[in-house]
Amino acid sequence: MSGAVADPPSRLVVGISGATGIAYGVRALEFARKAGVQTHLVVTPAGQQTRHYETSLSAGDLAAMADVVYRPADIGAAIASGSFRTAGMLVAPCSIRTLSAIAYSNGDNLLTRAADVTLKERRRLVLLVRETPLTLGHLRAMTAVTEMGGIVMPPVPAFYLRPSSIDELVDHSVARALDLLGIVVPDMPRWGE
Ligand SMILES: Cc1cc2nc3c(=O)[nH]c(=O)nc-3n(C[C@H](O)[C@H](O)[C@H](O)COP(=O)(O)O)c2cc1C
Q: For the Flavoprotein domain, which residue ranges apply (predicted)?
């Protein structure tokens, strides 16, 4: 239609930080791609370490799963600006260090800057925080993020669907997180359906 401004494709910012459970971030990228959502990925140096320990993926393999990949030091990248429209941001997994930086608006790298932008633009921010047990400091940081409108979602498995593999546990948590961002994972078992 002449003169019409096309909506930008649905974009999701994905941050992978250095908590154990990089599988959550990997599956989120795979599900988003299947759903036709454009992914913008930033992986912290500690996230690259867990990739090395926990998967057989190279840094290049992981990068190939996203549509656009940024260096954590590239704080001038598109996702560092609120004018770059996105559907929101998922940090999976989210370390306590990254949680704390987000909680106190410390945009010290591109991941935490993009998360701060997501909050300031009142977009959806979902953090799959992974640590246990929790200190008062961790809980206070979670409270601060929640008070700013972010969603703290530790990837705690549900057993009522009788998962038979680690992949199923991961998929279920990731699908629930993507639900919060308006991205539907087809064929995901849901209670009552
Ligand atoms: C194998 C491995 C597992 C880790 N697991 C966790 C974890 O589950 N939660 C956490 O908060 N930090 C964890 N850490 C520590 C973080 O990687 C560390 O605090 C790092 O500074 C986080 O940096 P980032 O937030 O920039 O990714 C782990 C580190 C390694 C090497």
A: 11-177
